[in-house]
Every structure is written in structure tokens, then in C-alpha cells.
Design a protein that fits this description.
The complex is a heterodimer of chains A (79) and B (220). With 79 residues, chain A is α+β, with helices and mostly antiparallel strands. In chain A, 35% of the residues lie in helices and 27% in strands. In chain B, the strands form 2 sheets. Chain B has a 9-stranded mixed sheet with strand order 2-1-3-4-11-10-9-6-7, with helices on both faces. Chain B: GO terms for molecular function: phosphoribosylformylglycinamidine synthase activity.
Chain lengths: 79, 220
Amino acid sequence: MKATVQIFLKPGVLDVQGKAVEASLHGLGWPGVREVRVGRTITFDLDGADKAAAEAEVKAMCDKLLANNVIETYRVEVE
Amino acid sequence: MKAAVIVFPGSNCDRDCAVAIERSTGARVEMVWHGDSDLPDGLDLIVLPGGFSYGDYLRCGAMAALSPVMAPVKAAAERGVAVVGICNGFQVLCEAHMLPGALLRNAGLKYVCKPVALDIVNGQTRFTAAYQGRREAVMTVGNGEGNFFADDATLDRLEGEGQVVFRYQDNPNGSARAIAGIVNPAGNVLGLMPHPDRAFEPDLGSADGALLFQSVLASA
């Protein structure tokens, strides 16, 4: 199975990278761009056939290592 | 006094910390590799040094917080042994949930490296007693991700319980409430972004960091 984990800073946590990218896009002529957030995507293959079990495992990986719940939220997809 | 400095792959202030502790306190310092699952007996102080453990991959300190040596470090902290995390070491302590909050990218997006003036907010801790009522200390910061973050309830609790130990006079990185260093509720685990290990004798521009290590010595 293929797992995809998307991690973003929580709403309300200042995303300075997002702010810098937003300012650059404004400067390049896209003044309508707002609320840019820069996150990261982690993908990997995972042994097993049970999708629900795999999702639970990947969420455990997020809580243990991949994301920091103090500042980040994550979204898990397994297919 | 007996101290240990933990060495992670990518630590680069481990020797600085050892020299700073030895010269400030005369303590014997042992270097402990991150892969060890035991610490030397009879430690009074454990230091997690600055640097870029595991290349700052994923998040600063995230991988180091899960390395084998952190289990005995946590156990020692629970027994009351003094633990100091400096810079990357502070990030490791937060990632290991030994201290609340997290360190974000600096608000100005730049790596900041300069001496900073700090208010000693709590002079009654095991790490600040030797400042003997002094209100100010100068140390050097060197960080790209030193922007302390915690939610408002946590910040209020830190302030209310006297857990804010150092505060920047001129906030260099956007840290919430200009916080530069905090202790755990038991008062034996300190995390700070400024480097006492780069300010332990006058030739380095400041000797104020030596007092931090001497405070631990006095409590040992």
C-alpha cells in the first residue's frame, strides 16, 4: 500500500515561509494570493492489505515522529 | 560534581559544553554517545548540546528526541538530576515532551548569531541561584529555529508558575513573550536558546554563562 502524509502548521501558528512565499507572489503580479501555507508531504510504501489498519498505523507514526502535535496538523491517505 | 554531555550525530557544541562546564565548575565531564542506553552513575548534570542533530531532518530535534540515550535521560530527570538543553538541546527537550512548547522558524526567516542581553526572570532556580539577584545576563544566540511557541494557556501557566527563566530584552527571533529559556514544573530541566557555553570567560565577550553551570554545582 502507498501512504501519503501531509503535514501543515496549525492555523494560528505563524508560517513565516508561507508569508515569504506570499509576498513574493504579490511581487510577481498575483496580488489576490492570500493565506499561503507551506507544508510537507511524506510518502512511503507499507506492507499489509488492511487499509483501516494501515491508516491507524500511519497515524501512530505521525503522533510518534512525523508530526509535532504542538504546532502541526496532519492528513493521512492510504491506498 | 559529575556531568555528562550527550553527543548526537550532528552536535557541534558538545566539546564547547564540556570545556565550559570543566572551566566553570571543575566538574568531571563524560561524553555520552546518543546510541548508548545507559548513563554513567552519579551524574549531577546532563547537558544536551547545540548543533544540528540528525541534520535537523524532519524537525529540529525530532529524531534526537527518540534516540536510545533519551530513555535514561528522561529517567534521570524524573529522579531530579539537573538537565540543560542548549539551543538544539532545547529543541530536543521540547520534542521529547520534557518541556512544553516548540521552536519554530525565526520570525525574520534569518539565522541569528549575536550576543543578546537577557532578563533573568526567575533567579531562584537551580540554574540561576549563582547570579545572586542579578537581573541581567549576556550570552550569544546562534539559531535559525529559535522562535519559541506555545499556546496562550501554556504561556500563562509558564509565567504564573515561575517557569520562565530567561527573557530576551530585544527579541531576536519572534519568540512568544520574548521567552529565551524555561524550566519544567519540578525545576530541574532547563531549556534555553542562548549559549552559556559560548559565554563562560571574559575573553569570549561574556562570562555570564559560567554562573549557570556554577548554580548547578552549588545545588549538587
